[in-house]
């Protein structure tokens, strides 16, 4: 399992989202507070963010622990964005540990992080997947079906693999989409934007937990969540 985070709002530094909060992704990489599966997230990390000069997201991913990356810690305060997806990874047993297996994945327009596990046997082979881990294959399936079908795709995969955990955070620069399916997700509405995170990065009482099996859409300051039900025959 991993921990992930999405941001949509005013430009803020990547460091202010990932590294500075008292229980942000940096701390979650070695001491997550609410993680049910796995003790730490030391098998890599990644961040993708949109800048105003292009619709193509920029990414920085690694197969090493976030806490050891002094270069990223130095540069992250200077990276500013209105829309960010970031993750720290705890690889499922048997999955490759390589930077291309770390979220966020991309199809060139969207960024997508998967927090969870899914049996690769229920996923179609995808030649365009970035890696061979379950999360990369799931990302390729979701991108192939289209982001407007995210809820249906997750509900279908959830029906095919009842043990799957399928929490997603995705963004295209103007929208954040997320699902809860077997793991936690919280939302924080700030004056300058909206944060979605596997677990709160601080003790602000304004964090609200999203119920399990929901689809979340953030557009501007609007946060909408709708229930998902397992579909047969994905
Ligand atoms: N199943 C994932 C992997 O190994 C585990 C990490 C995560 O929660 N995305 O890639």
From TrEMBL:
What EC number(s) is this enzyme filed under?
3.5.1.118
Where does the record place a coiled coil? none
Q: According to its UniProt record, which reaction does this protein catalyse?
A: gamma-L-glutamyl-hercynylcysteine S-oxide + H2O = S-(hercyn-2-yl)-L-cysteine S-oxide + L-glutamate
Return the PROSITE patterns for the record.
GATASE_TYPE_2
Q: Which GO terms describe its molecular function?
A: hydrolase activity, acting on carbon-nitrogen (but not peptide) bonds, in linear amides
Please provide an example of a Pfam family that matches this protein in its UniProt record: GATase_6
One of its GO biological process terms is: ergothioneine biosynthetic process
Q: What class of enzyme is it?
A: hydrolase
Q: Which residues form the Glutamine amidotransferase type-2 domain?
A: 2-234
Kindly give the Gene3D superfamilies that the UniProt entry links to this protein.
Answer: Glutamine Phosphoribosylpyrophosphate, subunit 1, domain 1
Q: Which UniProt keywords apply?
A: Glutamine amidotransferase, Hydrolase
Q: In which pathway does it act?
A: Amino-acid biosynthesis; ergothioneine biosynthesis
Asked if the record carries the keyword Hydrolase, the reply is: yes
User: What biological function has been recorded for the protein in this entry?
Assistant: Catalyzes the hydrolysis of the gamma-glutamyl amide bond of hercynyl-gamma-L-glutamyl-L-cysteine sulfoxide to produce hercynylcysteine sulfoxide, a step in the biosynthesis pathway of ergothioneine.
Indicate what this protein is called per its UniProt record. Answer: Gamma-glutamyl-hercynylcysteine sulfoxide hydrolase
Can you name the source organism? Mycolicibacterium chubuense (strain NBB4)
């Amino acid at each position: 399992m991993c921990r992930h985070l999405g941001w949509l709002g005013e430009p803020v530094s990547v460091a202010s989202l990932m590294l500075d909060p008292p229980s942000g992704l940096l701390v979650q990489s070695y001491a997550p507070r609410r993680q049910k599966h796995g003790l730490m997230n030391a098998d890599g990390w990644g961040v993708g963010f949109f800048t105003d000069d292009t619709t193509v997201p920029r990414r920085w991913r690694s197969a090493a622990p976030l806490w050891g990356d002094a270069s990223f810690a130095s540069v992250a305060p200077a990276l500013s964005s209105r829309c960010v997806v970031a993750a720290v990874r705890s690889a499922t047993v048997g999955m490759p540990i390589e930077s291309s297996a770390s979220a966020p994945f991309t199809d060139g327009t969207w960024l997508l992080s998967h927090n969870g596990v899914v049996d690769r046997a229920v996923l179609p082979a995808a030649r365009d997947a970035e890696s061979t881990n379950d999360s990369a294959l799931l990302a390729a399936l979701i991108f192939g079906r289209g982001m407007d079908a995210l809820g249906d795709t997750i509900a279908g995969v959830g029906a095919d693999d009842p043990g799957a955990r399928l929490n997603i955070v995705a963004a295209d620069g103007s929208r954040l989409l997320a699902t809860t399916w077997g793991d936690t997700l919280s939302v924080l509405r700030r004056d300058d934007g909206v944060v979605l995170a596997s677990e709160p990065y601080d003790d602000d009482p304004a964090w609200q937990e999203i119920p399990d099996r929901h689809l979340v859409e953030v557009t501007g300051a609007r946060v909408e969540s709708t229930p998902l039900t397992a579909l047969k025959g994905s």
